[in-house]
Amino acid sequence: MRINEAYEHEPILPYQSEESCPLNGCNKVSTQCVDVTASVILSPTAVMGSPTVTCQGNPTITCATNADGTMCTVTMTQKVCVSIPVRYGTTISTCDPTITCAESCIGCGGC
Asked: Which domain of life is it from (predicted)?
């Protein structure tokens, strides 16, 4: 892209040598490259729904008597299936963008 295509809204004036600059000023074009940084912060979200519980099969029961015969311990074990719906997502917030001068560049093609 030629520079006059990039700046069609501003006419490009012919180059004036230093000796021919008028007293009221002369037209010059300067270019500076900059680095613009825009950061975003992602935060996790997780929303739990209502769980559902279903029994799987029959329970197993074990009974153990202590050594002196004064008590029994009954253990019941049931396999259960717990389903918990979870909606995962993120929230996004933005930081203020920053700008810093980059190394100088030659013309618009160097940026």
From this structure: Bacteria
**Is the pLDDT confidence value at 107 over 70?**
no
DSSP 97: P
Cα separations in angstroms, 83 against 45, 60, 68, 69, 88:
19, 22, 43, 42, 15
pTM of the model: 0.46
Tokens of 111: 């940026």
Q: Are 96 and 39 in contact (CB under 8 A)?
A: no
